[in-house]
Task: inverse folding
């Protein structure tokens, strides 16, 4: 393929991969993403570089691990060395523009806001108090339009996207206002769920699709190819779902997760920080219903966008990538909530679909038994940077950073001898909890190094729910995995290696 394809990258926030039928059997209706999966490469072992929003998203823009780009946890949290994504020639937006692309962005950013915007953020004010950040970054502001994108700037956490004047003005232009009613809360810190009773066109998801259509219409009028990144705030909490989709789940009976109960006693104590106030299963069910409804609504809005691409004659020639920054727990392991400080599959593994444009063939991938094109190798968040640039026409070796393009993997049989055989997810804590972790996935095993707490070892073939910590039972395999992690840390110049060696290699 010689023509540069258009590229659409759709990102959800905190989506469990098993909400899609291609990965699991949860009772979530996602017909549009199911259809996209049928036409796409389905990556079965895609992992977040970090199960936290800011670090994972910064890796998408830089191709680097969090330990190297410095955004170690959510911006303006303790422990983050870099609060605002720096504007450099190596950013995805800058390299795409240099390659001749129009580049656009809308939706959640969470890679910097300007300290003043954070200080005024209503979400921060409500749940963290009147914290004065202004002096921390007086002259720095990183939002999409300051790093080369055309599109929309939404600074701050956003509280699901519903705090912004742009959304309010759009809904007002329809003669409406967004109404969020029947709000429930109290099971875990500030998390809440609610019902949007004012119609689908008053939702942030509808607004973002309209903004995407607006920008793609403008881009189409130019000769240059385009890259556009659409970023939903959901299904991350607050779990706000419109009546039209919540109705699908109101009476749905939801059985406890297979790994809701039955944990071995030797689990890290740090996990308790993220455990719900009430761990009775029925307390989780209303939130899960809203989460499912939110995901079904996102699917509906993605369907509207895909229909638009087809109507405009753009679908066939567009590389479409769909993924999420990380997953969600929703009560697993006796009431764990949110993400970070535990490394279970529900939060570290992510969905990744890739619909190739005409002329770009996946010659090294064959159909699986279910008829889908499945890629079993380990890939991760920072590979998306290199993949997008490679698809835009830059050589794979010129865009390799910590991540690598997956195109040689699926086109040239690179998986036979050159692709990675393991993947590592890192975490440095979240909020005021500073906690260093590294999770290594290799074959059917997962090893988690928890600095200062109990390490974990799971056989995912025998125990997919990660209930039984085998850290004291499988010493030969543990030694092999610890050596692989040490080798990886040394190769990546991971500064945690000193503490790792002290605690694990004495």
Result:
């Amino acid at each position: 393929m010689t023509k540069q394809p258009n590229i659409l990258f759709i990102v959800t926030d905190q989506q469990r991969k098993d909400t899609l039928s291609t990965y699991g059997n949860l009772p979530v209706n996602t017909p549009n993403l199911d259809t996209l999966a049928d036409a796409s490469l389905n990556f079965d072992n895609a992992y977040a570089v970090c199960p936290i929003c800011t670090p994972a998203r910064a890796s998408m823009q830089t191709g680097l691990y969090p330990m190297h780009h410095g955004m170690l946890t959510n911006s303006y949290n303790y422990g983050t060395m870099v609060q605002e994504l720096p504007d450099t020639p190596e950013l995805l937006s800058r390299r795409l523009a240099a390659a001749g692309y129009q580049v656009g962005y809308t939706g959640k950013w969470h890679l910097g806001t300007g300290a003043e915007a954070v200080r005024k953020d209503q979400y921060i004010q409500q749940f963290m108090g009147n914290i004065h950040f202004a002096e921390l970054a007086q002259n720095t502001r990183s939002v999409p339009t300051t790093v080369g994108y055309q599109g929309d700037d939404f600074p701050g956490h956003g509280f699901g996207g519903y705090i912004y004047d742009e959304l309010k003005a759009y809904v007002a232009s329809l003669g409406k206002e967004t109404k969020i009613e029947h709000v429930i809360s109290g099971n875990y810190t500030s998390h809440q769920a609610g019902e949007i009773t004012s119609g689908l066109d008053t939702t942030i998801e509808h607004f973002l699709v309209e903004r995407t259509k607006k920008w793609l219409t403008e881009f189409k009028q130019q000769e240059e190819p385009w890259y556009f990144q659409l970023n939903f705030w959901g299904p991350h909490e607050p779990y706000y779902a419109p009546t039209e989709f919540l109705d699908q789940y109101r009476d749905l009976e939801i059985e406890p997760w297979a790994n809701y109960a039955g944990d071995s006693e030797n689990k890290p104590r740090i996990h308790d920080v993220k455990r719900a106030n009430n761990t009775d299963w029925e307390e989780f069910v209303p939130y899960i219903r809203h989460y499912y409804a939110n995901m079904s609504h996102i699917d509906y809005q993605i369907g509207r966008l895909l229909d638009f691409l087809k109507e405009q004659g753009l679908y066939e020639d567009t590389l479409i990538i769909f993924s999420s920054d990380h997953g969600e727990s929703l009560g697993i392991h006796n009431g764990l909530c949110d993400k970070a400080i535990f490394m279970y599959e529900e939060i570290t593994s992510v969905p990744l679909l890739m619909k190739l444009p005409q002329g770009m063939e996946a010659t090294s991938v064959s159909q699986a038994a279910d008829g889908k094109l499945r890629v079993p190798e380990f890939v991760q968040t920072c590979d998306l940077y290199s993949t997008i640039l490679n698809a835009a026409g830059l050589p794979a070796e010129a865009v390799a950073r910590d991540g690598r393009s997956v195109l040689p993997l699926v086109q040239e049989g690179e998986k036979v001898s050159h692709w990675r055989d393991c993947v590592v997810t890192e975490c440095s804590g979240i909020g005021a909890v500073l906690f260093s972790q590294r999770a290594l996935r290799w074959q059917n095993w997962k090893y988690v190094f928890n600095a200062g707490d109990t390490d974990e070892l799971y056989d995912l073939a025998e125990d997919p729910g990660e209930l039984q910590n085998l850290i004291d039972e499988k010493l030969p395999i543990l030694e092999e995995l610890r050596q692989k992690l040490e080798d990886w840390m040394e190769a990546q110049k991971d500064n945690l290696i000193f503490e790792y060696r002290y605690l694990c290699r004495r």
Q: What stands out?
A: The two ends are 53 Å apart (CA to CA).
